[in-house]
Structure formats: structure tokens, C-alpha cells
Amino acid sequence: MGEKLVVNGVFVLGVSLMLLGSLSLGLGAKTRHFKWDVEYIHWSPDCSSNSSEGIVMAINGQFPGPTIVARAGDTINVELTNKLFTEGVVIHWHGIRQIGTPWADGTASISQCAINPGETFVYRFILDKAGTYFYHGHYGMQRSAGLYGSLIVNVAEGEKEPFRYDGEFNLLLSDWWHQSVHEQEVGLSSKPLRWIGEPQSILINGRGQYSCSLAAQYSNSSVEQCKFSGTEQCAPQVLRVLPTKTYRIRLASTTALASLNFAIGGHKIVVVEADGNYVQPFAVPDIDIYSGESYSVLLIADQNPKENYWVSLSVRGRLPKTPQALTVLNYITNHASKVPSTPPPVAPLWNNYTHSKAFSNKIFALIGSQKPPILARRRISLLNTQNKINDYTKWAINNISLVLPSTPYLGSIKYGLTHNSLDYKQPPETFPIDYDIMVPAKNPNATHGSGVYTFRQNHVIDIVLQNSNALKANESEIHPWHLHGHDFWVLGYGEGRFDERNVKDLNLKNPPLRNTAVIYPYGWTVLRFVADNPGVWAFHCHIEPHLHMGMGVIFAIDVHKVGNVPRQALACGLTANMFFENKP
Amino acid sequence: MGEKLVVNGVFVLGVSLMLLGSLSLGLGAKTRHFKWDVEYIHWSPDCSSNSSEGIVMAINGQFPGPTIVARAGDTINVELTNKLFTEGVVIHWHGIRQIGTPWADGTASISQCAINPGETFVYRFILDKAGTYFYHGHYGMQRSAGLYGSLIVNVAEGEKEPFRYDGEFNLLLSDWWHQSVHEQEVGLSSKPLRWIGEPQSILINGRGQYSCSLAAQYSNSSVEQCKFSGTEQCAPQVLRVLPTKTYRIRLASTTALASLNFAIGGHKIVVVEADGNYVQPFAVPDIDIYSGESYSVLLIADQNPKENYWVSLSVRGRLPKTPQALTVLNYITNHASKVPSTPPPVAPLWNNYTHSKAFSNKIFALIGSQKPPILARRRISLLNTQNKINDYTKWAINNISLVLPSTPYLGSIKYGLTHNSLDYKQPPETFPIDYDIMVPAKNPNATHGSGVYTFRQNHVIDIVLQNSNALKANESEIHPWHLHGHDFWVLGYGEGRFDERNVKDLNLKNPPLRNTAVIYPYGWTVLRFVADNPGVWAFHCHIEPHLHMGMGVIFAIDVHKVGNVPRQALACGLTANMFFENKP
Questions:
Q1: CB contact under 8 A, B182 and A117
Q2: Cβ contacts (< 8 Å) between A89 and chain B: which residues?
Q3: Is the peptide bond before B428 cis (omega within 30 degrees of 0)?
Q4: Is the dihedral of CA B399, B402, B405, B409 positive or negative?
Q5: What φ, ψ does residue A181 adopt, rounded to 5°?
Q6: Are B161 and B250 contacting, i.e. CB atoms less than 8 angstroms apart?
Q7: Quick one: which of B97, B99, B57 has its CA closest to B80?
Q8: Which of B428, B408, B430 is nearest to B419 (CA)?
Q9: Which residues on B lie below 8 Å from A549 (Cβ)?
Q10: Which residues, 6+ apart, have CB-to-CB distance to A404 below 8 Å?
Q11: How far apart are CA B520 and CA B467, in angstroms?
């Protein structure tokens, strides 16, 4: 109890603290080149064991992967070489719309063939707007294996953010299991299901503490106080601030499962950005952040500068079995090792959804933002259910559990190739009117499918995401849905089954633009988007094991307008065959 | 100690006991069709943990994979579907020469592109001769992950073996680690090297006992007596024999590392086949078997039929840290659970190479077998060294550590594509005359390479495999070298450095034909083969981590004569690009 947290300068490496407004690096957008090798490295993100055990998927030997910092309008050119031994790999640039470059979206079986070991694929795309983004693996459960990193897009040269700050921090949030991803995948595909359970640790910039606590003296448990020299793989990064200054904290969640609540002891925060879009600023004591979401919050270092304060992340939406993740807000000139004088923030109860919904309902687009079209051309209602199919536990959308084909859609649709015409029929646009969302799914005809919803370019589409009871009575889970290639407006949330009477309550005035939106237990969420980006795009629950269990759908938009797909994106399955058949 | 081994009928399932000579299934060769899915399953081959932990690579849900039983001249047609989530896969048919079908040899980066997840590749090839074979993964370390099974080729209809027996058993031998193969691979590729260590268990037909012993009452340690109901994944298969009858025991070793000694308490065995070739029968109390080798031995059940006897496998050639693997030779009508009345066989000391060499030197071709050509056209001397390259620990052959290219050789050579002309130059045919094999490698210019030895069809090639000291003083390891696409004659073994004076002692009269031959510590082995099979073939140390560390070479034989390579074998890397460039 008397032990002190030893923190030194090493801890703050990696948390970028940038003073803006003083730099002028030149005019116009530029192309930023990166050469990345993906490989496994020995690493223990939460120091649960010595680093001779446990591996993570790393980029250029770094976990998390390198942070990209660029400006809106820049072109990113990543030459990605697969240095794994037997596994393919892809990288998805989460939140980047890939306007005109659908083959660079980095989704295996959807936008491209996985990159084979030893091969290099070039991801080249334009950063269409400023914001807080990240990148991650999108093949099997390679995101859970550690393949992720931050992608920070500042405003274009000469542009200004609609808020001011003196410095910034970037916190990429993730969760970590001690069981290997390969074992997790097998368990999820087993009969009966072997669920992965709750994560052992929550990581902040790839660092968590499993067998010790930074705040042991405030804990009732017998957990030991952490003693770090600063060189440990799991030593926390401390946020160092000058009194009275304002900081932008970028938060992005690439968790496999965990919904999180972020708070800073003694401080309020002001939300200014969500998923790369400005929101009307509002102050809160804490925020919920779901997998696939990102936020920028402003923090004013306006508290007693003689003290340090806790930065905490707590599990929400599931009975928490994972310790709160902590780091320290360190007022310069205190020593970083000075332990805060009060206990870490207490998060709302895990199932206090009233708190979560209140937060969601505070998010509006910044005044002056683009409004959604008044009318949608088509509405697709997607019922989320947990099902048994041949005794395997699956998630299904309108009774269909997604199975990705071995030939990526982008190539097979563009070239008119199909395994089976049935696969590509339009899946159901809605679900039975008498489906009772309050009880476990009875639908015995749930099935697997690889179907595609097809849209014409620029059509306006409404999506009603409808939650329901899971297989166990009185259980309904949170699902954060993420759309590729587009942002959508979140028109509203509601309880129970969505109904025509709810339409009048939808917000067409100032709904926020997002790329990820949650459905709450037993609730619905309505989204609107303009299908303006030709390509094939995933829309799925961002909880990685849920996607693995089939929780997603595929949207295709005027694929005939897509040109110049790089050959490597097509070098598998039926598209490869097609080129072979045309051999001279 | 008073506990009894409980054995029931379940134990003998899977050990095939076939009475020959009584069946006549039709005339001529046939095509045998198989549909196989490769996937991970939860499995614990040595019951080290409950089966909710640990995974193995299985075929159609079976570990080891299904046993193929066929006849010489038959065609095998395996439709192999990759049901892994992110890993490619191939299967090598070990000992089958693939005459005219080099693309079916199942070596990733050499004979074909790895099969992508979700895709199916058809292995279709002829079983050119009778013998005891097996199949296994040949990509990364997927063999260690459990991807293997038996391939038993009986003589053609109407033909007879040159020995008689009343029944047969098939024992596929392997070794097992508790660390995942993915972690092993990372450790082997790390700087400094993290060696995988000795296996936790030796498996007989995929079954070993880690936390108990079948012979605890004979052990000095505190290990517990095994208590099996028979349904356990690690329950041993018992060999049930009738007194006075003669049995053929087929042995094949697909170990990743371990060299083994096989013995049956109280019985002599007669060796009649090695690697699918008949040998002049000889009796021994025990035999050494190295990874990649197979034998048939005859056992006469001529001992006291009131007793049962131990069947044992012990580690040779490395300081043993792995318990002896055991099962029981059960004389019918004893109960299978009757514990043998004497302790298990005691193997020769691990480093008693005199014993090993005496066995090797007893193996001669069956009288009347084909003799080797009198003269060789070319001799290639291959120095085996352990090296440091940029501080990574590697194995090198004539100073070059093999790195496999991402485009398989068969396609890139056939179509005249190369990454880099340097890669495809002929590697050195010999090594410096003054190289001192008795001390650690000094050669600081060891390097990586993907070079190829090129042969004209039907040229006669001699290979001198030269062992040497490893990186540690006074250490030289055993390496079993395996050749693809061909058998070779083993002309002789010797001590120290091979010298022209040794030529006169080589055996040209009745050397055995093999596909795998060992080099002993500080020794040499001379092989001769006729390069009669156009294609690209691996020749490598069959210890999987050694191959992973570069211990192999590549032979190309008149590749321009190879036709009709299946398109899927070419659908990666430069060969895929070539077809894309020729697109209409």
C-alpha cells in the first residue's frame, strides 16, 4: 500500500502532444508513403506473463501499429507486406470513405483477396476529411490479435478546426484476451458454442495492467500496486498537462467486444467530434464509447494543479469481469508518479442504459452541418437475432447469418461471376410483422447466406436496426453497427419494436453524421445515408466475435462504375480463374 | 500403484487389423475419391488439459487425419477444402513420387500456391508403388499443428508382398508441444532465437499421455498411473495379437523434431520395408526411426501368451526430456488391461550413436532389387551448418539459408518469371576444402537465398551430405534429409569429413532405396539418385523447425517438360500477375 507508482519520461512517449497553429509545412495536400511489414512479435500487452509467452500481430515491430498523422486531402500510400507465415492479411481504414477506391477498403472476401504471405499490396487512398480514425485487420479475428493503429487526420493546410486547443492526446482503446485468437475462432465456430468470455484487460494505446493496479490503495481486493520502471510493455502512458490549458483528447475504440465508459476524475469534458464529424459541443462528466466509434473531447486543465487525476475506462453493457483501465492525468509540474488523492471514477452501473441513451441523445451535428435529405427512397429493416443453425450458435439479420464467400464480392460482382445465383439474391428487406422481439428467437428457418443488398448510386436509404431478445430469456445485447464507404445520419433511437408512429419523432434537423451507431437492448436505431460511393461495402456489428458469427450484411452500389481494381485484389477464387481462362 | 490400466474395446479402434489374402475386390487399379475439409478442432492429444483448451489441425474433424488405404497403381483424388479462417494450407504426400504430377506434391512456395481459406484444390496422383507412407502439411509449421495422417499402399491386385503375415497394425508417430505452433514459429524467427525445446509428449496414432503413465508402477518418479475409460482423446490404442501369428507393424514418423527408438518388450522384430522399398529382412531388438522415415517390421507373437508386453517409443539423439511413449501388445485372450510383468524396454542411451549406426548399416535392399547406376554425372556436396545471419540463428547449406519465395518455383520457372535473377543462380556445389567441421561455423558470410540446383532429366546425381559442429562447441545434431519426387540409394555413411578416399567404400551392390536418410553428428552420408521426374522438388531436413530456419535446398528438373499445371497452383504472386497482364 505504501508503494509508489514510479513513472518516468518513457511513459509519455507515444502520446503525441502537438502544439497547433505554429506550424506551416507547405501548401496543399501531399502523398504520404509508408512501408509496413505485418508480423507476429512476442509481446505481453498487459504483462500477464513474461514476454517470452504470448504474441501479438504487429506492424514494423510495433504494437499497436504506427500512428499515421496526416491532413485532410492527403493521399496515403501504404505498401503492406505480409510477413506472417501462413496467414493472409488485410487492413481496413476505419472511417475513411474510400471515395472512388473501394478496393482499398481492406475487407477480405469483400473488397479484396487477402494478401498472401510474402506478398505486398499497396493501399492508396485519399483522406477525404479531417477526424479521428483508426485502422485494423479485417480478416478472421486479426483485429483481436492486435492488428490496429491510429489514423489522425488534421484539417487541411490553412483550414481551422471549429474549436481551439493547446495540445492533444491520442488514446486508442482495445481489449485483450490471454487465449489465442486462433483458439477463440475455433470456440466461436464450435458446437456447442464456446464463448470467448470477457477480456482479461482493457488496453490504452496497447497497454493494460492485468496482475497489478495503479490504484491498489483504493481497491478492496488484494491486487498489488503496480511498480513500473517505465520500460515495461504494459507501463501506462501518462497524460501530461499544463494548468489552465485546453487539450483535445482523441478517443477511438477498436475493442473486439467491450463497450467502455471514459472519465477523468474531477474534470468535465466537452464532446466536439464523433467518427470524423463535428458535433455541437456539449459537456459531460463521462462518455460511453462503443467498438468502432471515435470521439474528440476537450479537456480544460482547470482543477487543482497540485494534484494528479485518474483517467479511467470501465466496461459497460456487459456484467464487467474486466478491471477498470487506468492512467494518470499529470499536471505539470507534479511528478507523474504522484498518486491521485481520490479514488478512480466510478462508472455508471453496467446495465444503466438510461445513462448511455442520455449520452447518445445529446449528440447533434454542429450547427451549419449538412442536413440529411428529407426523403428516403427505400427503407430496409434489419432484425438482429441470435439463432441456432444446425446447433451452431449464430447471429442473423432477417434470419440470415452472413458467410463470406472465398471470392471477394467486388470482383465477382464487377465481372458477373457467382458461385451460385441464390447467393446473390437480395436478402429480405424486412421481417415478419408479428415477430416478438421480447422473447428468444423461435425462427427455426434461420440460415446461412452471402446475399447482397443492391443500391443505385445516390439513392437515399433508410436503415432500421431492430434489436431483439437473444437466445437466453431476458437478455438483449448492445451491438455497434459500422458502415463502410459512407457516413450515415443517426435519425433516432427508440424502445421496443420500430413502428410507423415513430417516424414523426425522427430527427431530420440536426442528426449527427457517424460511421458507427449502437442499438440498445430491445431497442431500435434509424439511420439514413446516401449510397453515393460505388463499390461493395460491409455493414456489420463491430464486435468482432459477433461478425465472426455472421452478424453483418453486404451493400453493393453500382459496381459496374468501379474501374481499375488492382490485380492483386482479384488474385483468388473465381476472379483469378476468370483471368486464367482467358490466358493466351 | 495398485491402480490398474482399464482398457476396453474402444482402444483398438483405429488400429487396422486386416487379414490379407482373403479379399478380391476386382481387377486392376481404381480411382479413390476423398473430400476433405481442413479445420482446427479443440483437441488435447496428450490430455494435458481438458479439451476446451488447445487446438489441433484436423481433417473432417479427425486427428490424425483419415487413413487412406489403397493399392499400388490406384489413383488418389482428394478434394481438399480449406476451412481455416485466415491460413492457407497444402498437403504433401510423403514418399509418393508424383511421377508426372509435380504440382500435386503439396509444397507451398515450391509446387503450388497455398490453398486459400474457402477454396478447394484437387490433389490427383498415382500411387506408384506399394509401401508405408503418410501425408502432412507442408506450409509454415502446420505439420506440428497436427496436420498429418497415414497413407497405406498395398500391393496391386494379384501381386504379393515378399513376406507373409496374418494381420497388420499401423502406427503413425508424432510429437506434441503445448505451446501453439504460431508462437513456436515466432520464437524460431526471433532475435535471439527462442528454441521450441523438447516436445511435451510423443504420440502414437495421435495419442500420448502427459500427466500420467501406463507404467507408473515401474517408474521412480511420482507420476500417476493412467486410468482410462477408453473414450479419452489420449487413451492408447492397444495392439491385440493371437499367439503364434505373424503381424506386420507399419511405422511412420511425422515428428517435428524427435528421433525415436521403437521396441516391443520380450520380442524381436524383423525389418522388411523402409520408406516404401523392400529391404533384405533382418532381425533386431529395437529400431531407430527418424522424422520422415517409415518402416514395416514383422512381429511373431511367439512369447508367453499369458502375458502382455510393452510397446515403447523413446527419444534418441537429443537429451531426452520427453517421457517414453507406451502402449500394450495384448495377447488375446488376456485382458487388454493386464499390465506387463516386466518394466518397459530401456532404450539405448540417447547419444549412443554406435547403436544407431549399427542399425543403419544393416539396411540393404532386398536381393533382386534395382541397383544404382555405376556412375554419377555430378556430385553435389552439401555442408550443413548452423549460422548467425544478422544475429538470427539459422541453418544453412553451403552457407545459404533457404528462404522460400512467395511465387512457387514450379510456376515461376516454367514461365520464366523471376523476382531477381540472382535468386535463381545455381547455389554452390561444394564448400571450402579447409572448412573445419569439428568446430562452430566461422563463416561470417552466411546469407539467405532462394537458389535452385538445376538438373537435366535422367542425369545421375550424387549428394554428399556433410554434417558439422553447430554454433555451440562440441555439439552436432542429427538431421534426417528427405527428398521429394524421388527415392535415392543410400550408398554409405561415414565419420568426419567426406573424402575421395571414402568413395571406394561406398555400397553400389545392394544399397537401400529410401526417401529419407539421416546424417549423424560430425558425419557424412552419400546418396545417389536418377533425376528422372521433371518438376521442382524440395530436399530438406525433415525436422520442421530446422526447415523453418532455412535447412533445405531446391532441385529443378527439366521444368519445361511439365505441362498442365492446375491453374489454382499458380493463382498467386508472379504467375497470377502474368495471367492478369495477358487479360483480354
A1: no
A2: 86
A3: no
A4: positive
A5: -60, -35
A6: no
A7: B57
A8: B408
A9: none
A10: A108, A109, A110, A450, B118
A11: 7
User: CB of B563 within 8 Å of any CB in chain A?
Assistant: no
CB contact under 8 A, A180 and B185: no
Average pLDDT over residues A543-567: 96
Half-sphere exposure (CA, 13 Å, Cβ side) for A226? 27
Q: Measured between CB atoms, which of B119, B406, B567 is closest to A119?
A: B406
Is B103 in CB contact (< 8 Å) with chain A?
no
pLDDT confidence of residue A432: 94
β-bridge mates for residue A322, sequence order: none
Residue B85 to residues A27, A53, A259, B177, Cα–Cα distance (Å): 45, 23, 25, 22
Distance from C-alpha of A374 to C-alpha of A510, rounded to nearest angstrom: 12
A115 bridge partner residues: A89
Q: Give the closest residue to B150 by CA, choosing from B203, B217, B223.
A: B203
A352 touches chain B (CB under 8 A): no
The tens-digit pLDDT sequence of chain B (584 residues) is 333 333 333 333 334 343 333 333 445 789 999 999 999 999 999 998 755 568 999 999 999 999 999 999 999 999 999 999 999 999 999 999 999 999 999 999 999 999 999 999 999 999 999 999 999 999 999 999 999 999 999 999 999 999 999 999 999 999 999 999 999 999 999 999 999 999 999 999 999 999 999 999 998 888 999 999 989 999 999 999 999 999 999 999 999 999 999 999 999 999 999 999 999 999 999 999 999 999 999 999 999 999 999 999 999 999 989 999 999 999 999 999 999 999 999 999 999 999 999 999 999 999 999 999 999 999 999 999 999 999 999 999 999 999 999 999 999 999 988 755 445 678 999 999 999 999 998 877 899 999 999 999 999 999 999 999 999 999 999 999 999 999 999 999 999 999 999 999 999 999 999 999 999 999 999 999 999 999 999 999 999 999 999 999 999 999 999 988 999 999 999 898 888 876 54
Q: Are B411 and B462 in contact (CB under 8 A)?
A: no
Of A111, A141, A148, residue with least CA distance to A568: A111
**CA atoms of B546 and B402, how far apart (whole Å):** 10
CA dihedral B9, B63, A547, A396 (to 10 degrees): -40
| Whether B543 contacts B256, CB under 8 Å | yes
Minimum distance, in Å, between the CA of residue A116 and any CA atom of chain B: 8
Cβ neighbours for B114, distance < 8 A, ≥ 6 positions apart: A86, A116, A117, B88, B89, B90, B108, B139, B572
Question: What are B349's three cell numbers?
Answer: 542411451
Question: What are B206's three cell numbers?
Answer: 495421435
Would you list the DSSP string of B425-471? SPPPSS--TT--TTS----TT-EEE---EEE-TTEEEEEEEE----S
Q: Which residues of chain B from 393 to 452 reach within 8 Å of chain A, CB to CB?
A: 404-406
